Amino acid sequence: MTPRPQRPRFAGFTLVELLVVIGIIALLISILVPALSKAREQSLRVKCLSNIRQLGTVNQMYVNDNKGWLPFSSWGQNSVFPNAVANWLYTPPLNTEAETYQRLETGSFYPYIKNHDVYKCPGHSSLDRPTFGVHLTDLMTSYLMNGATCGFGTTDGSGRIAQFKITKFRPEYVLFWEADERGSVAWNDGGSYPWESFNPGDPGAGGLASRHGKVATVACFDGHAEWMSHEEFKKLADHVERRDQPNRFWCNPLTSDGH
Question: Which of 33, 44, 194, 199 could cysteine-pair with 205, CB 3.0–4.6 Å?
Answer without folding.
Answer: 199
